[in-house]
Amino acid sequence: MSVLPIDILQSSQLYIQEDKLRQMRATGQAWDPIPVKQLGPHLIMTDGHTRAFSAWSSGQETIAVVWDEDDLDWGAYEICVRWCQEENIRTIRDLHDRVVDAETYQRLWLDRCAQMHRELEHKRG
Fold this sequence. Notes:
Oligomer: single chain
Helix content: 40-55%
Largest sheet: 5 strands, mixed
Order of helices and strands: EEEHEEHEHEH
Radius of gyration: 14 Å
CATH topology: Conserved hypothetical protein from pyrococcus furiosus pfu- 392566-001, ParB domain
CATH architecture: Alpha-Beta Complex
Strand order of the largest sheet: 1-6-4-5-2
Distance between the termini: 38 Å
């Protein structure tokens, strides 16, 4: 585990789900380290965007990270990171105006990701 500046971590998600964020803040739970992996020149968050956003929005400038050892679908992560970069989402702070309700999160993020996974599966045969 390492501690890094939050601002060097590339987001791989375009939105934060408001209810999940509210629940996290209400419980006051300790934050687990954010899993990260290198993707080209970027150190990306592979999970934990809500935790990272909560930490950043509460004034933290650094965050605990851990190297993600999971076997990830890099094709999907490359697409998600490209989407983020196309919308100028570089760090967790760039999501400050993208905290959305559950229905909007489902429509704008989860459904989009599901479609992308279907397209990847089709291409891969």
